[in-house]
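Hi! If you just cloned this repository, the fastest way to understand the data is to look at a raw example. We've pasted two of them here, unedited. The first protein comes first, obviously.
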Amino acid sequence: MEELSLAIERHKQSSHGAGAYSAGHDNARQAPPPIVYTRTRMVECREAVLRRNRVVAAFDRGPFVEGYQLLRTQVLHRLRENRWNVLGVTSPRIQEGKTLTALNLAIMLAMETTQTVLLIDADLKRPSMHRLLGLDECRGLTDYLLEETPLEDVLVHPGIGRLVLLPGGRAIQRSSEALTSPRMSALIRETKHRYQARIVVVDLPPLLTHADVLAFAPSVDAVLLVAGEGMTTRHDVEESIALMRGAAPILGTVLNQSESGPRSVRAMRGVAAG
């Protein structure tokens, strides 16, 4: 763990400071009108399933909830001070907790009354966001991109805050081509600029095992790198940071899967556990 912390600290020292944040900035933001779901499919997620899958942000209290609340605050500060609203979430390799982190963070963001959140499952080789919510196999991003299914036919409102989910849909192998297609670029542009008070969180594939993240990087404003305690190596963190240099800013690095509960990560002084 010491080597991982050293790698993250090196990234922090090589990055520019976050800058001042105005305490009155939040007060100046007006709450968006309530979401009205017409064709968007509404589902009810079962509490037992959410707890079993460690979707802890859906509850008022419990293990690690405060960690995600802290992460939300830090992410919002960085997004707002840079006027960003499209955040990619990735990890160096598989099974390091990026999808669960993306989901819990998106839920926490959607609990804020000042914005809505669109969560996109863009890990198209292994789409799994719907399973964490206890949803059956459903149409999603691949259907929108490859079959030209209307967007409103694949969006899902899981009944949690101001959150809307765009599931991944069926798994495909040529995911890089799909994520860099004109239809995908148009989707990101539309969601980025049409709603001033919307944050888009994109769950991306692992950085070191897929070309998708680097191919898609120009479409996001920044990237959150998830590191798994006891899994992610110092070399993997350094290689990931080097690959992203010049592609997209790294908003911070989140330590996931901490057995001792929420722990501070020096690159962002944030945490997600689960």
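Ok, and the second one:
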Amino acid sequence: MANSKVVKAASIVAFVIAGLGVIGALMGPIMVLPLAAIPLVAGIGIMRRRVWSAYGFAFYQFAQLLLLPVALFRSTMGLPGIIAAAALIAALIPLFLLAGRSLAAAGAERGWAWPWIAASVLTTLPLFFVQAFVIPTGSMEDTLLIGDRILVQRFPKPSPERGDVIVFVYPIDRDQTQMKRVIGAPGDHIRISEKIVYRNGAALKEPYAVHRTAYVDSYRDNFPSEPNIRLADAAREMIEKHVVNGELVVPGGKYFVLGDNRDNSFDSRYWGFVSSADLIGKPLVIYESEDQTEQGRPGGKPVWVWAHGVRWNRFLKVL
């Protein structure tokens, strides 16, 4: 005979998790809303006495548990957050296993296992290969806007080519990441004249680059030249050691990167090369975008209050 208290508790917990998922999606990234359907279906299935609704949600939670070391390695969650999440999942798994065993002992209908296995795999396996990032600044406009949420390929680690947008460890503050476009690869000769970038003697066609100032800055727009602003030590060394005949020569294992918002980008011109060892990955797709400006979200209200702040035209935009 089924332990009705355990079964009831499992269904209630599943519904609570689904509700929290809906609230979290409405208050933040709306794209995670479909994930709330997983605990919702589990709760309904348990109420309808389906054994695999309980076992399946336990399996789903176990799959989530496997992601926690990845989150710790990538520093997307602090150690206290990892411990709290692990403790919660460790408590949920036995509850749903016991509910499933209780239903099975009472002769309840088993239901299907494969949808739960598929849901667990599809919601966890890709995250071993990609990582989500949010664009915090306008240095890559109009390619990437503030509030764009993107998926970045981390494994296998891509080999960047000229013109690729890359994510890397910020040399000035290694606790942060940056996203810029590769302009120069090892061996390339780079110079900028009157805002036009030349690589190995040829002017680049850059449809992605935007210039929002009419004036020409003596350093920013005619590079390399005598700095008119304080540079990071690595950038000063770059200018002193890697300029030949008025051109910057990119050394081995390094990349020269610029922001697409060319007149408003703190990039290699100011802090030096990006090391290949600091490469994190390559953006794949914008999976969601929210206008986080005052115009898009007046008063900083959540998206569900100001729905016009969601940039629907940027959803699932391939980069």
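That's it. A detail worth noticing about the second one: The chain has two domains: 4-128, 131-284.
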